[in-house]
Amino acid sequence: MRRHVVAAAAASLLLAGCGGAADTQQPAGSQQPAAKEKVTLEWWHILTSDPGKGIYAKWAKDFEAAHPNVTVKITVLENESFKSKMATQTASGKAPSVFTTWGGGVLRQQAEAGLVKDLTADAAPILPTFSTAAMAAYQIDGKAYAIPTDIGMVGFWYNKKLFAKAGVSEPPATWSAYLDAVKKLKAAGVTPIALAGKEKWPGHYYWAYLAMRVAGLDALKQAAETKDFTGPDFVAAGTHLKALADLQPFQTGFQNASYSTPSGQAAAVSNGKAAMELMGQWAPDVQKSSGKGLGEDLGFFPFPAVEGGKGAITDAFGGGQGFAVGADAPAEAVEFLKFISDPARHREAITNAFALPVIKGTEDAVTNPALKLVVENLTGASGFQLYLDQAYPPAVGQEVNDSVAQLIVGGKTPEEVVKSITETAKSE
Amino acid sequence: MVKTAPGVLPALRVAAQRPPRARRGLTIALFLLPAVVLFALLVLAPILLAFYAGFFKWNGMGGLPQDFVGLDNYLRLFASEVFAGDLRNMGFLVLASLAVQLPLSLGIALLLNQRLRGRAGYRLLFFAPYVLSEAVTAVLFSMILAPDERGLANAILGAFGLSSTWFADTSTVMPALFLVMTWKYFGFHTLLYLAGRQSIPKELTEAAQIDGGTPWQVFRHVTLPLLGPTIRISVFLSVIGTVQLFDLVWIITGGGPSHASETMAVTMMEFGFKRLQIGYASAISVVMFVLSLVFALWYQRFVLRRDLEGATVNR
């Protein structure tokens, strides 16, 4: 049994090389009558649950009705399987017509390999309608390679009741106050933090934010360019995280915990077993689907500032989602992007809570008080950093996740973390 | 070989004039062709491509790899701590399987061979885990061995004031994983041994008993030697399976915490599909392949030789 699966994995890895050269060439300079030609749009997205899934299906139907020659074929995949499937798909030299992207390093690699369409000219009418922060992740060397559908930021989602029980009257604004709050929560018999240690990416949020607060956004940008993360400020970020981990603030068995399963990180907060989690804008939604949900007791506060650090508490860390278009996709794919970027449709996504505003002027559609806080923090942000595991080339991003995960469980020192990240960055 | 008489069928005439040996060769070739094509396409080509891609730095996008780096991927691999950990984990699992899992299976097989009330029921029960898919097993044990009070195992152990961190600690994750592997595979090996045991003629053990052999002596000098071929095959399957262990680990721990339970196949997946370093991942797959191949050839040459001798003589 396991032999077959590994063989299959290996085979797909290896067969990866087979494609490429034999791409069917679309006739260049498509003529006007070609618009009547029957075309199929392959639409890959990752909204596996309603309402998002259903609304996307409805939009596809509406688009088909408006464009009788188009068939939209939807493929819905869970996050991780989407990434694996994309890897095998792009290895064959073709990308789906319209597909989910988080921008950053992966999109850059896809663009450099000529797999995604440059939308700068084709989507020109809609590009200015998006907010600058939302578009940032998809602009590579001045060209737009995707359009945003969601944008948000990472921050602490906390249980107001548990904080009050531990005598923490207001959300901590500095790192030392934060550590104090963690100690108080522990003393009150409350698990301070839920963390999905098995999945690595939630842990990297801590290190990334600490690096932003200590070293500052410019230093992070510079480190990415010079491929050198060995500066003392990045080591300090690790030391601060180690200080937190040494307090043993995480739930029992966090090393093997997942994020969205019924025994995972989100559920622990949702069921009142842990007081907070550091997570993105989707946190309330996942809390609700994996546990009881906190309702009014759920609060949000931005990652605290570090005393003497170069970054401001108003610098935001996060990202969103968008859609890119495959290089060989029919012209209707861009039409489809324009169609779903209609402000009315975007409002529908916002009111159904599977997206935060990316189109200017739709901010008022957010009604949830906690999400309103996210939007306020985001619009008032003094700077923005995309998730490190998306911003950097995949190997570097994964190494950040991996070595930070090791730091948290005591497998690596802060110095070794920056050394591994630098080594991987240099090898890319 | 009957010769085709000329003139029997006009269509056969041309063929009949050819030397029969060549015609037979052609027939064989024609019949082999589909299998050979499939084998070449689905087995040989990927292997060769992996060897090829292993010499390149390649993110798998857009056509064949271009950036030739020679042995760089292999040098990086052999210098990597994670890979060293993979090999250690493989060594642990192989040794533990040979030392614990297989003897356990053998013991159970011998018990199940006794006249025993409900024997068929036990046989079914012990074989059942093997029928479950690895994914189901993995999810099942993620729940049973959950590290906090929610886990069934810890709830039971808790009644005796005990508990374990299971998959959530670098020191307990490998034994816990081995426990799951054993649960999953002992039934398969038990079945092999049971079949082997039943092919041993009763006269032999009876004769030994009549000659005054103690049960241990009968086992040691009659049953065990005659089970030899079965044991050798079972060891072979166990080792090869362990070298390629993937599903269980991937689902239960993803290789963590801190790489403590990572196997070569998990590292390969990580680098191939998450880090998009397909060249490096190919190098890992090549090392896995070579390891398995060398072991298989060595094992066949030196361990299975006696068992295979009959087969070669008959040919």
Write the layout of secondary structure elements.
The complex is a heterodimer of chains A (428) and B (315).
Chain A lengths: L1 H14 L23 E7 L6 H15 L3 E7 L2 H13 L6 E4 L2 H9 L19 H5 L2 E2 L2 E2 L1 E8 L1 E5 H6 L9 H13 L3 E3 L7 H14 L2 H10 L5 H15 L18 H6 L3 E6 L3 H8 L7 E4 L13 E11 L6 H9 L2 H9 L17 H11 L3 E4 L1 H4 L2 H16 L4 H14 L1
Parallel strand pairs in A: 1-2, 1-3, 8-9, 11-12
Antiparallel strand pairs in A: 3-11, 4-5, 6-11, 7-9, 7-10
Chain B lengths: L12 H5 L2 H34 L2 E2 L9 E2 L3 H8 L1 H33 L5 H13 L2 H11 L7 H7 L14 H26 L3 H9 L4 H29 L3 H6 L11 H11 L3 H25 L2 H10 L1
Antiparallel strand pairs in B: 1-2
What would your notes on this structure say?
The complex is a heterodimer of chains A (428) and B (315). Residues 1-35 of chain A have low confidence and may be disordered. In chain A, helix 8 (201-214) crosses helix 10 (232-246) and helix 10 (232-246) crosses helix 17. Chain A folds into 2 domains: 36-153 and 319-386, 3-Layer(aba) Sandwich (D-Maltodextrin-Binding Protein, domain 2); 155-317 and 387-427, 3-Layer(aba) Sandwich (D-Maltodextrin-Binding Protein, domain 2). In chain A, strands 1, 2, 3, 6, 11 and 12 form a 6-stranded mixed sheet that branches. A 4-stranded mixed sheet of chain A has the order 8-9-7-10. Chain A is of the alpha/beta class and 428 residues long. In chain A, strand 4 (139-140) and strand 5 form a beta hairpin. Chain A has helices spanning 2-15, 52-66, 79-91, 104-112, 132-136, 160-165, 175-187, 201-214, 217-226, 232-246, 265-270, 283-290, 332-340, 343-351, 369-379, 388-391, 394-409, 414-427, and strands spanning 39-45, 70-76, 98-101, 139-140, 143-144, 146-153, 155-159, 191-193, 274-279, 298-301, 315-325, 383-386. Chain A is 45% helix and 15% strand. Chain A has 18 helices and 12 strands. The two termini of chain B are 19 Å apart. In chain B, strands 1-2 form a two-stranded antiparallel sheet. Chain B is 72% helix and 1% strand. By secondary structure, chain B is an all-alpha fold. Chain B has 2 domains: 18-51, no CATH class; 83-314, MetI-like (MetI-like fold, Orthogonal Bundle). The radius of gyration of chain B is 26 Å and the shape is flat. Chain B: It comes from Nonomuraea dietziae. Chain B: The chain crosses the membrane at residues 28-55, 90-112, 124-146, 166-186, 233-252, 278-299. Chain B: Belongs to the binding-protein-dependent transport system permease family. Chain B: It is a multi-pass membrane protein. Chain B: It is found in: Cell membrane. Chain A: Keywords: Signal.
